[in-house]
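To whoever is on call:

I kicked off a structure prediction for a single chain this morning and the downstream step that reads the tokens threw a length-mismatch warning. I double-checked the sequence; it's 173 residues and nothing unusual in it as far as I can see. Pasting both halves so you can look.
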Amino acid sequence: MAARRGRIGWAMFLFFLVMPVIEVIVIIMVGRRIGAWQTLGLLVLWSVVGAWLVKRQWRTAWRGLRTALQTGKMPARELTDAALVLIGGALLFLPGFVTDVLGLLLVLPFTRPLARPLLQAAVARRVLAGSGFAMQATETTYDSRPPHQQQDGRAAPGNAAGEEIIEGEIVDD
């Protein structure tokens, strides 16, 4: 596990080191081709269009998530879409053409399904590796006895003798 974190750490370090260099190179190339002011205008236009698109797609993803939760459906796809829109939005807000293209691919509804399996596989690997909720669920033991009763039927030490414990659930209407 430590080796994996080390590899991911190095990959992120290289990404954050190399990506700005690539962005500057691309911006200079575009600037030489169409001019400095046009390049600046194009970057600003990408930001405005990206912000509008992220806002629109976020609403759609949020609405889908709420609908799934209200119907009792497991919202795996909706959560993945919301995460991809969030990541894509962050990439769109970064200045540069390469991050804008990557962000656009994650935000657009017809290209998002291409990235969805990658994110789901990454999350599944993390969960199966023992991080997150899966580890907690495997360590929990389930017992049919009420939490205030020991194996021999006596009250648990935290329960003073004679205290009545009423089990139930709270329902918000």
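Update from on-call: the warning came from a stale cache, not from the record. Cleared it. Sanity check on the structure: Residues 132-143 have pLDDT under 50 and may be disordered.
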